[in-house]
TrEMBL record:
Gene3D superfamilies reported for this sequence: NAD(P)-binding Rossmann-like Domain (3.40.50.720)
Alphabetical keyword list: Oxidoreductase
InterPro entries on file: NAD(P)-bd_dom_sf, SDR_fam
Name of this chain's protein: Probable oxidoreductase
Similarity comment text for this entry: Belongs to the short-chain dehydrogenases/reductases (SDR) family.
MF terms (GO), sorted A to Z: oxidoreductase activity
CDD domains: SDR_c
UniProt entry tagged with the keyword Oxidoreductase: yes
Pfam families: adh_short
Organism: Acaryochloris marina (strain MBIC 11017)
SUPFAM superfamilies assigned to the protein according to its UniProt record, in alphabetical order: NAD(P)-binding Rossmann-fold domains
Signal peptide region: none
């Protein structure tokens, strides 16, 4: 990322990857609008439930006409007991499926739509979304709603690139397990098997690298796999 201080929106800013990305950009002097349902650890917090149209509208209302250099959609949800031996697709409800797809696929589309004018005011706008390796071809996991939502996100982002005539740089970052507090806790408590996770610093550096690229370069997918 260049030395110029930029204005970014981070969605999913109160926990996990989003919290770490928010704190990093805030600590480095960038203007950060932090979107989450629960309190984020920065001053410019936008309280919004993006599973609801009213929450998405609240994001647009709070940002107003501010020029945005980047939209960083770092949030995501999944089914109960996802990625553990206790997960059972047949026990996942219709409401849960709709919630997961709503947050992971529909919300990114609608937030991009509502902030598009703000992004297009910038010289080199970028929109970056957290996907998943399970959203890649032939990499699906048993978590049906989550996998479907991540496939859908990648398709939506490919279409958004065309819809905005390539005037915004669109990227989906597809990581394996990242060393957030939640993932480390799941490993320590036995919900996830022992493994070497991706350092959160690598995820942040990936975002910074994407934001440092010239307007002549677009990166469709950035896949981060665990060794």
């Amino acid at each position: 990322m260049n030395s110029r201080k930029e204005t970014v929106v981070v969605v999913g800013a109160s926990r996990g990857i989003g919290a770490s990305v928010t704190q990093h950009f805030h600590n480095n002097g960038h203007k950060v609008f932090a979107v989450s349902r629960t309190q984020a650890k920065v001053n410019s917090w936008i309280k919004a439930d993006i599973s609801q149209p009213s929450g998405i509208q609240a994001v647009g209302d709070a940002i107003g006409t501010e020029t945005l250099d980047a939209l960083l959609f770092m949030g995501g949800v999944w089914e109960t007991d996802a990625f553990t031996q206790n997960y059972n697709f047949t026990e996942s409800s219709d409401a849960e499926t709709r919630f997961v797809i709503g947050v992971n696929t529909i919300a990114p589309i609608e937030i991009t739509r509502i902030l598009s004018d703000n992004l297009l005011q910038a010289a080199n706008p970028r929109a970056i979304y957290i996907g998943s390796l399970s959203g890649l071809d032939n990499r699906a996991s048993a978590e049906v709603a989550n996998t479907a939502s991540k496939f859908g996100l990648r398709g939506a982002v490919q279409a958004l690139r065309i819809a905005f005539d390539r005037k915004i740089g669109f990227t989906v970052i597809n990581p394996g397990n990242v060393a957030t507090e939640e993932v480390l806790s799941d490993i320590q408590e036995g919900r996830f098997p022992p493994q070497k996770v991706i350092p959160i610093s690598d995820l942040i550096h990936s975002v910074e690298w994407l934001l440092s690229l010239s307007p002549l370069v677009d990166v469709q997918d950035l896949n981060l796999q665990q060794r």
